[in-house]
Amino acid sequence: MVNRDEFIREVTIRICSSLEIKESLRNTFVYLREQLPLDELFLNIVDQNLGALRRIAYVGTEGSETPDEIIPLPEEIVERIKERCFREPFIASADMDDQIFQTMAPLIKLEGNSDMIVPLHLDSEPIGGLTLRAHGEGRYSEEQAEIMGYVTRPFAIALANALAHEAVLRYQDILLDDKRFLNRELYGHLGEEIIGGNTGLRNVMEAVRQVAPLNSTVLLLGETGTGKEIIANAIHFSSPRKDGPFIKVNCGAIPESLIDSELFGHERGAFTGAVAETRGRFERAEGGSIFLDEIGELPMTAQVRLLRVLQSREVERVGGKRAIPVNIRVIAATHRNLQNMIGEGSFREDLWFRLSTFPVMIPPVRQRKEDVPALTRHFVTVKSRELGIGMPPSIAPGALMRLMEYDWPGNVRELENLVERELIRHRGGALTFDTVLSGEERRSPVAAVEEGRPHLPLKLDEAMAAHITEVLKLTSGKIHGPGGAAELLGMNANTLRWRLDKLGIAYRRKSR
Ligand SMILES: Nc1ncnc2c1ncn2[C@@H]1O[C@H](COP(=O)(O)OP(=O)(O)OP(=O)(O)O)[C@@H](O)[C@H]1O
Ligand SMILES: [Mg+2]
């Protein structure tokens, strides 16, 4: 064993080496492994609220099984651990003559392993523990336990910081929701005028007027960019719930592993104080509405939970024991054909029944071309303001007629992006949209590249659009997952979707 001072110094430097607890634990692991038998290292808390052992961070060698993050414990064991108030590092084994460890051994898979447990305290309050595990029995000595006793403090501080960090992230999220809500209160009704409410969207607006005052679940259907979100806003803000929260969730944007706890909440430790309550988005929508956008992207486990919420109006948090009643209105949206998804087995039929009590179909722009002139004028005004153009330019005669001839596969969003680009390029006079209308915009740069005669120089955005379009062709429109465009381009699928929206390229959200 190295000398004591050097040991303390090395461990302290490593456990403080990163803000990311998993990263610093890994650095520490690498060093400790040179000094002691070590195959796995855990940072744990005994979560009183949850009645469970919760793993805050974990590092293992290759071949170590990834541990469960939450291990429910019998109530009397939680009590006993609290009473015992372990102080010094000790060695635990499966055949130990100790009631706590006899009960815990199978739960924490102690059999065949040696564990050294290092209790962690802050201001003499127990906050958790560090577990060193070596595969095989009888691997640790009392002397090694003693030396670990020298470094409890840096570990305790690292654990406390990790928990505080978790709490901050949680707060940040809650504040962001509040901010969105307050912003909308202040500015929301400006600039969110619905164009075509008496013409192309007449039936849609009629449905909105009918359903808004009720509590019914609404399912908004329509191609990408048709205005599903703007209609969801209209429903919430013309309903009796308009003064309550309006929580939006893009089901396709949350990683699958997090979606359950994001939506339904997660039980958590008392240590985190006020943030012990980790309400999911459903709970945060209490008294208001929740908008589940891209509902077709919801993984199966979340579909099951959602069904339960719709049936019983109760939420069960992940790892929780009780059902929490919620008073919410659910608005869901998708551009996908859910019935096809049911056929493929990727969407639950019973959930579809629950969701489709009041479906609202938003027609694509090509079926309501009469709205194109009003939409164009609307975006010229709104975008001029956003771009700081004092006097919105006029639209050249004939331009609107020609805009109406186009089919708009990206719907209103495509038109919106087009107007913005036209304004950015605009150098005086009336807006002619002639690059678009002569087919230049549509053919170039993508078509030009295809024909092997790219216009040079291309703008960066144009080159990017052309390249992405090429890649999408290769993947037959597939964005996400193995062999998808995101993978080929070496970028995150959501970032790619965002960029496609920005560039005004129409695409399928997720293909199977
Ligand atoms: N009728 C309308 N009047 C004014 N603006 C509209 C209208 N319909 C859509 N928009 C605008 O067009 C853009 C796209 O609309 P929205 O985000 O609601 O579409 P979406 O159907 O949710 O699309 P996606 O499926 O891609 O999420 C938004 O900026 C929205 O404000
Ligand atoms: Mg949308």
Write the CATH fold name of the largest domain.
Rossmann fold
Oligomer: single chain
Give me the CATH superfamily of the largest domain.
P-loop containing nucleotide triphosphate hydrolases
Number of helices: 22
Shape: elongated
Low-confidence region ranges: 269-276, 443-455
Q: Can you summarize the main beta sheet?
A: 6 strands, antiparallel
CATH architecture of the largest domain: 3-Layer(aba) Sandwich
Pick out its properties.
alpha/beta; Rossmann fold; Helicase, Ruva Protein, domain 3; 3 domains; six-stranded antiparallel sheet; elongated; binds adenosine-5'-triphosphate; binds magnesium ion
Would you give an account of this structure?
There is one protein chain. This protein is an alpha/beta fold and 512 residues long. The chain folds into three domains: 160 residues, Beta-Lactamase; 173 residues, P-loop containing nucleotide triphosphate hydrolases (Rossmann fold), CATH 3.40.50.300; 138 residues, Helicase, Ruva Protein, domain 3 (Orthogonal Bundle), CATH 1.10.8. Helix content is 45%, strand content 14%. It has 22 helices and 13 strands. The chain has a six-stranded antiparallel beta sheet with strand order 3-2-1-6-5-4. A five-stranded parallel beta sheet has the order 8-9-12-7-13. The chain has a two-stranded antiparallel sheet with strand order 10-11. Strand 10 and strand 11 form a beta hairpin. Helix 11 crosses helix 13 and helix 14 crosses helix 16. The protein is elongated and about 90 Å long. The site of adenosine-5'-triphosphate has 17 residues, from helix 8 and helix 16.
